[in-house]
Amino acid sequence: MTADAFLFWFLAFASLAGALGVVLITNPIHCALSLVMTMVSVAALFVTLQAYFLAGVQLIVYAGAVMVLFVMVLMLFDLKNEIQAFSRGRAKGAFKIGAVGILSGLIVGAVARVTLFTDTPPSASTMAQASTSVGAIRPLAESLFFDYVFGFEILGVLLLVIAVGAVALSRSKGGTHAK
Amino acid sequence: MPNNLLDSAILTEITVNHYLILSAALFSIGMLGVLLRRNIIVLFMSIELMLNAVNISFVAFSHYLGKVDGQVMVFFVMTIAAAEAAVGLALAVSIFKRFKEVNIRFFEHLKG
């Protein structure tokens, strides 16, 4: 087994274990910590896919900023092990798990049946060229600021709206439920 | 035999299919979290999990196609996810101020 394959299987196992931890652990702060494990594993998976810049952004934005936000809100709530962490009803629960199982089974079956990108196997030189051009930041920046500049600007407006909305929400007195 | 199994192609040759199946598994686990859990913060965490799963398949396709468009999409998804987390947590804080509870069982006022 090569190092690449071992790395992939290790990271896949770590990310899946973290994801299961988020769903199954009842203490929310432990959920947040296992979500951090998943985020870091996903960032490492980005490195194995040679998306180095995105791996850094994933670490800073997700494992850093978003998780700090989550943990800080959890700190405000001061939650212990909660009662009724899961939805009630054994039949309902089995139905939900079955629905998710069917969905994942369909996706995995469909993906496993086809072999993608084997019709025209790229030669070693073009693969190397493509991987360096994908790994570098410059083509990414050119694509972001030339081809997708409209979406980029829209995202800026969206972030402004979100910032104003979050402040307005935190200042509101409860709307129709106001005492 | 175990040696054979360890060297079989599905274990040693990592293709795009491996990344896609991992992505599907992560997405399904996130969906399970949204369906099963009651804590609104954990629901948001599960949604982040699903968005991350989508990011993996974007980056995998970007790598195996040799194009950067998928990575640009990942930027957009990350921005939306951060915005969603900010608004969601602000909503959670205001819900907690009103109901003193973050378990979605206790604020079903919109339930028909």
Strand content of chain B: under 5%
| Overall form of chain B | elongated
Distance between the termini of chain A: 65 Å
Uncertain parts of chain A: none
Multimeric organization: heterodimer
Biggest sheet details of chain A: none
Radius of gyration of chain B: 19 Å
Uncertain regions of chain B: pLDDT < 50 for 5+ in a row?
none
Which two chains touch over the largest interface? A-B, 87 and 76 residues
Number of helices of chain B: 5
List the total number of helices of chain A.
7
- Give the topology string of chain B: H per helix, E per strand: HHHHH
Structural class of chain A: mainly alpha
Rg of chain A, rounded, reads 22 Å
Structural class of chain B: mainly alpha
Report mean pLDDT of chain A, rounded to a whole number.
83
DSSP strand count of chain B: 0
Plain-language structure description:
The complex is a heterodimer of chains A (179) and B (112). Chain A has 179 residues and is mostly helical. In chain A, 78% of the residues lie in helices and 0% in strands. Chain A has helices at 3-24, 28-48, 52-77, 90-113, 124-135, 137-147, 149-171. In chain A, helix 1 runs antiparallel to helix 2 (28-48) and helix 2 (28-48) packs antiparallel against helix 3 (52-77). Chain A is globular, with a radius of gyration of 22 Å. With 112 residues, chain B is mostly helical. Helix content of chain B is 78%, strand content 0%. Chain B is built from five helices and no strands. Chain B is elongated. The model of chain B has no long low-confidence stretch (mean pLDDT 85). At the A-B interface, helix 1, helix 2, helix 3, helix 4 and helix 5 of A face helix 3, helix 4 and helix 5 of B.
